[in-house]
């Protein structure tokens, strides 16, 4: 049996534990996609609104329709100034609103990163438990001629497969959730809500993080000698 087949076979063991890990990763990916795509939508909205606001405020004598939009914008600005007790000009207010929205984008990106990291960190515990229960099996593999390097690669690949499966499930569910959320907004408002690079980078980063986090328990277990493996109670 090759190391790749061994990784896939081990993945189907401890199904409840592995399923729990995959679900946690999927949840982290779903949260990341929703938050990051929302941030991208806000950024896109800022770019569009800045151009649109400048056109509305700067062009006040073209048509009656534009004059109505201008009067509406100025009325809204006057209301905000009176409500907040400020005296912002049109440009100042637009800049402050853009800065506020940009801060929201940064917060969303930070929360998304934390959510993904929390979901992926469970791989260390899962792989630690899985591998600790296979010490006798690892001893048998070494007796059959498997090297430390082969056992290390096989165990690390198992962690990577958990991350890959979890990220794919999370991307599918997250994409559906984003599509549902986008139906509540005006069409075209979030034209870059879920770009392809976000989907691809999420899968790649999640898989790489899973490989890295699974490396330590895999390395630790691969160092066990045959004598130590058979002296274990399991």
Highlighted features:
234 residues; 83% helix; mainly alpha
Short description:
This protein is mainly alpha-helical and about 230 residues long.
Describe this structure in words.
- Belongs to the ABC-4 integral membrane protein family.
- InterPro entries: ABC3_permease_C, Macrolide_Exporter_MacB.
- This is ABC3 transporter permease C-terminal domain-containing protein.
- Keywords: Cell membrane, Membrane, Transmembrane, Transmembrane helix.
- The chain has one domain.
- About 3% of the residues have low confidence.
- The longest helix is centred in the first third of the chain and has 44 residues.
- It contains 8 helices and no strands.
- The two termini are 22 Å apart.
- The protein is mainly alpha-helical and 234 residues long.
Topology at a glance:
Blueprint: H1 3-11, H2 15-58, H3 64-84, H4 90-132, H5 135-143, H6 148-182, H7 196-222, H8 226-231
Helix pairs in contact: 1-6, 2-4, 2-6, 2-7, 4-6, 4-7, 6-7
